[in-house]
Amino acid sequence: MFxxxxxxxxxxxxxxxxxxxxxLFAGLAISKYVDLPIARYxxxxxxxxxxxxxxxxxxxxxxxxxxxxxxxxxxGLGLELFKVRVGSWQYPGDAxxxxxxxxxxxxxxYAAVGSYLCQAWRRFDLRVSNYRPFLTTIFAVLIxxxxxxxxxxxxxxxxxxxxxxxxxxxxxxxxxxxxxxxRMPLAVSFALIGFFLWIAExxxxxxxAWNYPDQVNVWHLVHPxxxxxxxxxxxMSFVLVAxxxxxxxxLYHRGTTATVEIAPQHHNxxxxxx
Length: 274
Known about the structure:
The chain crosses the membrane at residues 7-26, 38-58, 65-82, 102-121, 133-152, 158-179, 186-207, 227-244. The protein has helices at residues 2-17, 19-33, 40-57, 63-85, 107-123, 133-149, 157-167, 186-206, 225-245, and strands at residues 98-99, 102-103, 127-131, 172-177, 180-185, 260-262. By secondary structure, it is α+β, with helices and mostly antiparallel strands.
């Protein structure tokens, strides 16, 4: 009985943490089936900007979190511009705010991931232990770069993913549900978030927000390989949030304990350990 209650609590916290993605998909659904006075992508851009401002005004997100989410928007938009240019997917329909085939609202789909991470961090009282920021950031950058370079060079996502697993092998994320404290490997959380992002991607293509080449005429499920791609991309998203959270207690919220514990650097081994 207690386990069922905890599962329901966990689900409720997840739903509340997904408010921005939920409103975003509501906008996608409405804009698909309702006639609008302006182009769909233009309306979605205005809607997403308004949504971001609303979340800040009602204090669902702080200005620091809004800045991080804007960073997600820029990173995602850069990836979108490249992927659309090489034909990986396309955005049907015209819009004033469409640049090189990419509507500016597209960055908000990545920003929604950032919003979820920020919301979940607060609502689950997340703490990360034994985090290695330098190495994790390097692998996150390699993952992002590989999304570009694999068009001409060998796809290195598997060796990069294995390297990231090694770096994160001792990194844990702690979270609270009700009166209980739990933990899981950080790498597992990346995989779980990646799976739900793959589901969200299926919903987005079904609502005709964008299409893969084999979905233009008839919609079908996005290839399961995209689940792995999203899991890798989450690592880069996490690095952006963790970089801000690791400064807690020093640059802001002075005196509080940082929610990201940096792994100690053992430059000199203890003689007794040899």
